[in-house]
C-alpha cells in the first residue's frame, strides 16, 4: 500500500528509494496508515455527510437561494459532498491493501476528488469577494450581486475546477504490483518528475497562494471600512466567511506544504531513507488534518451563524416534532408551525447575508 490515500493520487512519494543500491523499506509507515486512516476517515465521512446535507436542506427548504451569497454557500456544500463521496472508496483501499473497483472508478473518483477540492477553493474565493463587494463597494454591489451573476460565476467556478482536475483524471490508472492493484497517477516516465512538481505547484498556487492573496486584499479593504464606519451588522456578515477562510488555511496549508516538499525533495532534502520515511509519515498526518476540513463548515455555521441555528431548529421542528405530534397529541404543534414560518419582508432582508 502506498504511504497515504491521497499520496496514491498525487504519487509524490515513492515506495522505495535506492540509495547506494540499498532499498528503503516503508512497511512500518504503511502499517501506520492502514491502522490510523480508515477509522478517522469513516468518522469524517459520517459527520461531513450529515452536516453538509443539513446545510443543503436548510438552504433549499427556506428558499434562501435568492441571493448570491446563498448560491455560493450551496455550491460550497456540494463541493464538500463531492469530496466526501470518494472517502469510502479510499477507506476500503487502505483496509484491503488492494484497489477493487477497476480502472474506470479509479479515474472517476480521482477526478471527483480534485473537482471537489478545487471547486471548494474557488467558492470560498467567491464568498470572500462577495463580502468585499457588499461592504466596500456597496453601491456597485446592488447591481452586481444578483442571482444571475451568482449562477454564472458558479458555473465558471465549476468549469475551472473541472479543468484543474483534468490531469488527475487523465493520468489516474490502476497497476498490478506483486500481489495487489494500486490506483495512482501514472505520468509519462520521461517527464515523471516534472509532472509531479507541476501537480504540487498547481495545488499550492490554487489552494494556498491565490486564496491567501485575495483574502489579504479583500479583508484589508473590509477592515478599513469597518474601522472608519463601525457597523455591527456588517461585521457579523463578514465574520462567518472570515472564519471559513481561516479554517481552510489552518487545515490545508500543512498538507499543501508537505506535498510541495515531497515533490521537490531531491532539491530540498538529502537523499536519505529515514528522511523519506519521515516525509511519508508527515503526509499521512497532514492528510488526516486536511480531510477533516470537509466536515468543518457545517460546524462553523452552527457556532458562528445565528440564522443557520434558527433555521436548523425550524427544520428539525418541521421534519421531526410536527410529524411526531400526529401520534403524540400532547406536543403543541401550533407554536412550532408558527415559529417555522418567516414573513416575506424579514426573509428578504435576511437573505442578503446568507447564514
UniProtKB/TrEMBL annotation:
Residues covered by the G-protein coupled receptors family 1 profile domain: 51-301
Gene3D superfamilies: Rhodopsin 7-helix transmembrane proteins
Subcellular compartments: Cell membrane
Keywords: Cell membrane, Disulfide bond, G-protein coupled receptor, Membrane, Receptor, Transducer, Transmembrane, Transmembrane helix
Keyword Flavoprotein: no
SUPFAM superfamilies named in the record: Family A G protein-coupled receptor-like
Protein name per UniProt: G-protein coupled receptors family 1 profile domain-containing protein
Organism: Pipistrellus nathusii
